[in-house]
Amino acid sequence: MTDLSITTSQKVSSSRFWPTVCVMSMAIGGMGLQAHAHEKAHEHMAESGKTLSAVIAGAHRSDASKARDQYRNPKATLEFFGLKPDMTLVEIWPGGGGWYQEILAPYMQANGTYYSAGFDLSATEGYQFKSNNALAARLASDDDLYGKVIVTELAPPAKVVIAPAGSADMVVSFRNFHNWQMRGVEKDVLKAVFTALKPGGIFGITDHRSETSTGKDGYINPADLKAAAAEAGFVFVAASEINANPKDNHTHEKGVWTLLPTLAGNDADKDKMRAIGESDRLTMKFMKPAQ
């Protein structure tokens, strides 16, 4: 299990949590993180204490990341969840790209607490290893933006302590439930979320949506999420169409990965996929009962 007595009292550093990695080999938001950090170092003031809109517009975010705002609607999504900058927040599986982390960590930096519950820190190869190294490099790149981030790990069923029990005001997850469902660990994850939240705490989630999902196409059936959340003890609060995309018919050659940003299908279809944009997504809010 994650030793929270250590992870909650020490600052994140790539040397403490991950093996040394050549930053030049990684790309964050379509740019090499090292080059991005040097180019932007003198272009922004610390985002700490700024409004959500100011952080989203911040110079620390690449043009490639900002181009996705039209599909991912970060301000409207986080406001729907009810995020406040003085909360204790956990983001599950930010990933190597860390698209939302580049918004959430700076926003929480001044007055809140932000936990980055990433992949298994003992991974030594593959996607999770590369993702961990990319995340470590980002967090070490700018103390003003990421200096207070607390790293934990989520590797169900063995490692599920994402924050101290009953400490989080909110837990958020972006486009991850389909991965847990395909691996058969969604119940373990939801239990971990429920445990970390305070009574009355909020679980906010987005994911690729299809009522006819095969379970292997990267989409999830909203009814499956609702049922799993209810079984874990959550109360459904509300759903929003903030991240809906009616252009997505949910039926693609290589599932959701056919669409942006992956474009995994045939080259001849890529312009058509670009015209669709990113996937049709559900946006839901659940609550751990106050009593």
Overview in brief:
The chain is α/β, with parallel strands linked by helices. Helices cover 35% and strands 16% of the residues.
Features of the shown structure:
disordered N terminus; globular; Rossmann fold; seven-stranded mixed β-sheet; alpha/beta; 291 residues
Any overview of this molecule?
The longest helix is centred in the middle third of the chain and has 16 residues, at 126-141. Helix 8 (101-109) links the parallel strand 1 and strand 2. It contains 14 helices and 7 strands. The protein has helices spanning 4-7, 14-17, 33-40, 52-56, 63-67, 69-72, 74-81, 101-109, 126-141, 143-146, 177-183, 186-196, 222-232, 270-276; strands spanning 88-92, 113-118, 150-153, 168-174, 197-208, 235-240, 281-287. It has a single domain (4-287), classed as Rossmann fold (3-Layer(aba) Sandwich), CATH 3.40.50. It has a 7-stranded mixed beta sheet with strand order 3-2-1-4-5-7-6, with helices on both faces. The two termini are 28 Å apart. The protein is 35% helix and 16% strand.
In angstroms, what separates the terminal alpha carbons? 28 Å
Instruction: Please bin the fraction of helical residues.
Output: 25-40%
- So, the CATH homologous superfamily? Vaccinia Virus protein VP39
Taken together, the total number of domains comes to 1
- Give the CATH level 1 class: Alpha Beta
Give the structural class.
alpha/beta
Spans of at least 5 consecutive residues with low confidence: 1-47
How are helices and strands ordered from N to C? HHHHHHHEHEHHEEHHEHEHE
Overall geometry: globular
Question: How many extended strands?
Answer: 7
Query: What's the total helix number?
Result: 14
The major sheet is characterized as: 7 strands, mixed
The CATH architecture can be named as: 3-Layer(aba) Sandwich
- Look at the structure and give the mean pLDDT: 87
Strand order of the largest sheet: 3-2-1-4-5-7-6
CATH fold-level label:
Rossmann fold
- Rounded to the nearest angstrom, the radius of gyration is 18 Å
Beta-strand fraction estimate: 15-25%
